[in-house]
Amino acid sequence: MSQMTAKAIRITQFGGPENMELVELPLGEPGPGEIRIRHKAVGLNFIDVYQRTGLYQLPLPLNLGMEASGIVEAVGEGVTHLKVGDRAAYASQPPGSYSQARVMPARSVCKLPDDISFETGAAMMLQGMTVNYLLRRTLPQGGLQAGDHVLFHAAAGGVGLIACQWAKALGLQLIGTAGSDEKCALAKAHGAAHVINYAKEDFVARVKEITGGQGVKVVYDSVGADTFMKSLDCLRPFGLIANFGNASGKVPPFDINVLAGKGSLYATRPTLFTHLASREASQTMADELFAMVSSGKVSIKIDQQFALADVAAAHRDLEARKTTGCTILIP
Ligand SMILES: NC(=O)c1ccc[n+]([C@@H]2O[C@H](COP(=O)([O-])OP(=O)(O)OC[C@H]3O[C@@H](n4cnc5c(N)ncnc54)[C@H](OP(=O)(O)O)[C@@H]3O)[C@@H](O)[C@H]2O)c1
Question: Contacts for 255-264 with beta carbons within 8 Å, 24 or more apart?
Fold first, then answer.
């Protein structure tokens, strides 16, 4: 019998989008705890850029991509929550979702509810579960209550537009930043209570103005280097900064005493994958997202779609801040 293969996107060295190659890879049978899934749609995420450039160092050669949806094609020993023919979606390590099909750990792969399309499933798993753990599990002392202000950077992006809607559903006053007036309007239309164009406005001053001089309880900062220190100045005493990304570069090392001077602040650097460490945790995180999407409280806005073979163009647009909402690749 001839060996099964699948097309996939791979890098053999870190660098620019041109390093991504479409290759044909062998496709085996799933081992214990694994499945084989045939992808219908693949999600594009900023973490894919960090892995491509080597900002996050993983062994080479590296098959890229952390998120997809598709149909379960084979099930390994010990996997009980999925069967052949199931519609499924995931955000999961290790990378390798930029492909027609793959063998992978089953732990974080979840059955996709019938009312959620493959496109939406691929677009929402990683960014939607990220918003879930940020707004509901990455909290300041005493938690967040309806009416509380939070600052959320890059509010018109993939994570951002989901956060605007989920925050509104929780009754939070989300102050969203974005890099153009059009992006600000988009964040506002998705539930941000206030928006700041940080390309031309001083966001610290505007946050102080909006909160009557008090500052916010939490800043969710995925922009990193460009915003981190200023984000600290937006917090009220005992406030929390959650730096969860590096779109503008990693936050440089800083003196922890700064947190004392600015009001006994808390700082955390969370990642989704700690929240997906077990099968049970993964399923809970996904079920909570499915409920938000199925109820219509969160709608997934797919503003860009590319063929898998055109992934370099997708990366270029994402890095050039040309995208809004979610982006998917069709294998
Ligand atoms: N830790 C985690 O668990 C986790 C999980 C998911 C995502 N993330 C992070 O969350 C962020 C958003 O992810 P996403 O996939 O939804 O991407 P995205 O927000 O759709 O795209 C990134 C956005 O960041 C803003 N940005 C600011 N400075 C930038 C720069 N120098 N270069 C490029 N973009 C810049 C841009 O919006 P403006 O033009 O409006 O500034 C851009 O559109 C990323 O930093 C990602 O790494 C973290």
Answer: 258/229, 258/232, 259/232, 262/232, 262/233, 262/235, 263/235, 263/236, 263/237, 263/238, 263/239, 264/237, 264/238
